[in-house]
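hey so i finally got around to running the thing on that chain from the lab meeting. sorry it took forever, my laptop kept dying and i had to restart like 3 times. anyway pasting the input first so we r on the same page abt which one it is
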Amino acid sequence: MKKNKNKMILGLIILFTLVVSFWYGGNAPGLRGFDPKPDTTENIETETGNEDPGEFPHVEEQSKEIEQTNKEIKEKLAKANEEIEEKLDQADKKVTEKENNSQQARKDEKTTTRQENPGKNQSSSSGTKQEAKDYSEDQGMEINPETGKDKYATDPVPDGKPVPVEPGNKPVTNKKKTATLSVRVDTLLNNLEVLPSNK
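ok and heres what got predicted. didnt touch it at all, straight out
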């Protein structure tokens, strides 16, 4: 009986604590069980905006500071956005220039190849195939003479290209390879104070 009595008392204390915290817990007016503004003429004047402006000078100062801070933040964000857009435009221009240059280089290469070999015909192509077959056989590829391909139906490898290797036959080296990834976000890092801290 004593255990049950203690449990009931503990339960009532917890329930009372919850009721009190619920009753007095909110920040909104009217949640504490009473109306903070009874309907009087003073409150009606305050609600209609007839309050004395000198009554809360610190509020006006704080609101001006907040407005100034908001204005500064907006200016910094606009400046940061302009810088980012400018850098993106520059990067786009560089990429476009590189693409144009590489396309032009390919066109020039094709043009020079055509000019150097104007009479290229099928017989020279078959000579290239024979050279590829000879090179592949020299490198260890087993070419079937009937199909002209290896047992995996792979065409002969052109001269200078690596020959396919069985995964189990590939020599293992201890050479370490590295890759470097560079990401720059200088503009964002320089303007962290402008960005919201919760994001």
